Backbone:
């Protein structure tokens, strides 16, 4: 490990716990054409499933000066086992030797952000983990997996954000995928490639403008669209304001392949139906939250599963339906409709 020396004694002990197992292996590594090697689904994988669990071969501190880093990289190879050395050296390197030595190039090509905290006094610090399996996933500007770091087991878990068919390539996300295509491409130049994923390789400028606009709208969503909490107690808003708005978000997410962004929108639709007291639709949408979060966010999945079992235990269950009935009873014939349609 290339851990900064002062941090090591502060790390919690015992640090290394057995990683969680994913059985049977749901992936394989194979040739991905011009992208080099890639990660592929070995079987059909459902949304929310753990695809793999991986431990770093090396951990690279960020924010150290280049001189220190180079010395540390030079010292790494003789200090790791032969199998780790072979695995590390087999990883991709997008940096020419004229720019930096091999191990540093491999770390710069592959390192993924992880957090190490050294209690009691040191706040979590960002490091780069070089992972033998996760690092084989190529980049796509669509989001079809999530990677979650777990410090106690010193491992990352990779989750499916949408169903995979056997043989389909599994992609990671190296950069902010809500940025416009030109910005994303400039960013990815640091990995030495022009992104030709299906979300970048578009037929014409019109398609690029449409995609950029969709991503910009998703990025600024909460400045542009109604929010769930104020809506839930504001009877001047249309009853379906959040549902209509979030269905639009889900359509944009589908269009751009940004599956990882779905949960908060699905969750708000489910809760909107709860506030409206619509039990069948609440169950349908809440079940989607449960399916999506079972692996990567079990707490949220359990909370929604509880509400599916007992919908009325949701504290605002049917609040708007009751208010609407009261308002209807008091309603005088009105000349104008004062509800705001957004
Ligand atoms: C972290 S590695 C990914 C695995 C790598 N393909 C391998 O053979 O081990 C990053 C490198 O993969 C290639 N790569 C990843 N995503 C790509 C994409 N969308 N288009 C082209 N090349 C890509 C680039 O060479 C990049 O520097």
Residues:
């Amino acid at each position: 490990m290339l851990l900064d020396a002062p941090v090591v004694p502060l790390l919690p002990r015992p640090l290394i716990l057995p990683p969680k197992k994913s059985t049977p292996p749901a992936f394989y590594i194979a040739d991905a054409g011009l992208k080099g090697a890639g990660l592929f689904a070995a079987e059909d994988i459902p949304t929310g499933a753990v695809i793999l669990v991986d431990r770093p071969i090396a951990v690279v501190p960020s924010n150290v000066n280049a001189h220190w880093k180079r010395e540390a990289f030079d010292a790494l190879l003789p200090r790791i086992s032969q199998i780790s050395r072979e695995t590390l050296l087999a990883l991709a390197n997008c940096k020419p030797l004229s720019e930096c030595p091999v191990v540093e190039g491999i770390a710069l090509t592959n390192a993924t952000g992880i957090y190490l905290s050294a209690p009691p006094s040191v706040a979590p610090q960002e490091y780069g983990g070089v992972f033998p399996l996760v690092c084989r996933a190529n980049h796509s500007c669509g989001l079809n997996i999530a990677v979650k770091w777990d410090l106690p087991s010193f491992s990352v878990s990779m989750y499916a954000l949408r169903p995979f068919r056997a043989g389909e390539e599994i992609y990671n996300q190296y950069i902010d995928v809500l940025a416009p295509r030109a910005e994303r491409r400039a960013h990815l130049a640091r990995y030495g490639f022009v992104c030709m994923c299906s979300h970048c390789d578009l037929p014409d400028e019109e398609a690029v403008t449409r995609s950029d606009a969709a991503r910009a709208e998703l990025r600024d969503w909460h400045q542009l669209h109604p929010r769930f909490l104020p809506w839930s107690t504001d009877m001047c808003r249309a009853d379906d304001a959040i549902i209509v708005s979030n269905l639009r978000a889900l359509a944009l997410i589908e269009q751009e392949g940004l599956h990882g962004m779905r949960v908060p929108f699905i969750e708000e639709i489910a809760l909107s139906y709860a506030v409206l007291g619509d039990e069948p639709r609440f169950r349908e949408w809440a079940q989607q939250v449960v399916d999506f979060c079972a692996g990567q966010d079990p707490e949220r999945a359990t909370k929604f599963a509880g509400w599916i079992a007992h919908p009325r235990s949701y504290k605002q269950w049917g609040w708007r339906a009751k208010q609407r009935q009261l308002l209807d009873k008091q309603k005088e014939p009105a000349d104008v409709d004062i509800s705001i349609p957004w």
